[in-house]
Amino acid sequence: MSKDITLYDKSIDPTNYTIVGDKGMGKTTLIKNLLKILIRNNEAVIAYDRLFQFEDILPCYDFVNVVPDGVNRQFCIRQDTVENFMAIAEEYRKQVLKENPKDRLYVIIDEIDTVYGTHGPITNDPLTKKLLVDMVDYSRHKRIETWGCVRRPQRVWMNYYEQSERIFLFHVSGGLAREKLLQTIGSKEMMRAVSRLKPHKFLVYPDEIDIYDSFGTKTLDLGTQENEE
Ligand SMILES: Nc1ncnc2c1ncn2[C@@H]1O[C@H](COP(=O)(O)OP(=O)(O)OP(=O)(O)O)[C@@H](O)[C@H]1O
Ligand SMILES: [Mg+2]
Fold it and tell me: Distance between CA 140 and CA 110 in Å, rounded?
């Protein structure tokens, strides 16, 4: 039996979350569920998705130099360098916190293992790899909550995962990917559980071994009331 999971909880300080899993296991579905909850709660969100998958729920732009006028708190950029994306996120962060210093900005990146920097793709450019790690490190202190999905965890630097408060683990089959995950979570028992997961089911590191489903989510409001989604 799978359970519901709380993706939105503002009683926890803004932090970094990572979603890992093979193709088609449900990573983007989980992110979309989160996006819907954030939209419903009028949170400020900037998403980065190179595959046009959020078009039905968010305004999407190919490329922007400034935060688009009249944007309704949430938007997505789909074709851009990670440097430009981060510059826009920083500008939006300032706008959001100027209005309310206690607020937070959600930065959501689908497929962090495919991002492009000015100097090339993350696969072979150390600068791009480092940018992503720096972004997460910087964000934690700047009231930005970051969420990233990754299909090939071995492409991203270890420091990235070390900064993840929680890692959502879907089924992972590749040898290199599994090796990287074992290094990251350090638990053979959890890796065995990951290898037994059915599609669309996931575990959450470092929590106990409960199984969740990418369609099942619930909201927790400011640590006091639980609302079924
Ligand atoms: N819990 C679920 N129950 C049934 N179908 C699901 C569930 N979660 C996702 N799916 C379906 O599985 C398909 C793949 O899901 P999704 O795009 O989220 O995978 P992904 O992990 O992001 O894959 P990729 O690495 O290719 O981006 C979609 O058609 C989605 O609707
Ligand atoms: Mg996806």
Answer: 19
